[in-house]
């Protein structure tokens, strides 16, 4: 093997090295990654050995080698690598092609808030942390860079909302929820009697979830990220993320029931009706109430 390939292997996860070394197309695959990266960003200078070391350090420790290498997004990974090294042309391209999308990710927010978020996001991703590497250097290339940055931006937006929560009048409900209630006399009656109790119970239940459960529900139900996008954020398979979200939903409903039982003297039928409402309108309720 070439000296460049041996250097690559020296930086790869030890558990993966035997499979990499045995892979007959390793050198061609590495050459393909370099070629793809150069074609994606021809104006950005490349230190090939440093780039391949960066790639090696971010490989998973397990997996079928051919598939692992084939799925890497070399262009995105090279752009992140060059930005993390402070390359001015790479940073310019990153701002033009990725950070410029922040407004499309948060179409309902005020332009001033989006501009502020973009500035904070740029600093968060590009500025070294405590003398180490910038956060952008942690991007692994296993999913689209834009989706990875979008997930970071939405998490940052959530943190900003938590720091400055926006209160909503208790007496107002989303139009879709109001229509649903109006079409069901039983639920309309419960709304009239227990609307504030439901809001208090739901918020209390949210507060009892752990941080990951709340973030999963926010990213998927509030901000509309797909299971694949959430999986890219947590570096977890789609099936695992789907289980996490389902469990978080189930736990939220269970905790809401506990909070309602503690607050109200409802009959079992009334409580079940209210919980059917919570379950059927969970997406709406999360978007409307999940501001802490």
Describe this structure in words.
Helix content is 71%, strand content 0%. The chain is an all-alpha fold and 292 residues long. α10 (145-163) packs across α14. The chain starts with a helix and ends with a helix.
List the helices and strands and how they pair.
Layout (H helix, E strand, L loop, with lengths): L2 H9 L5 H6 L3 H15 L7 H10 L7 H7 L2 H11 L3 H10 L4 H4 L5 H16 L18 H19 L11 H8 L2 H24 L2 H12 L4 H8 L3 H26 L4 H13 L1 H8 L3
Concise account of the structure shown:
The protein is 71% helix and 0% strand. The chain is built from 17 helices and no strands.
SSE succession: HHHHHHHHHHHHHHHHH
Overall pLDDT, averaged?
Answer: 80
Uncertain segments: 165-190
Which term fits the overall shape? Answer: globular
List its traits.
292 residues; 17 helices; globular
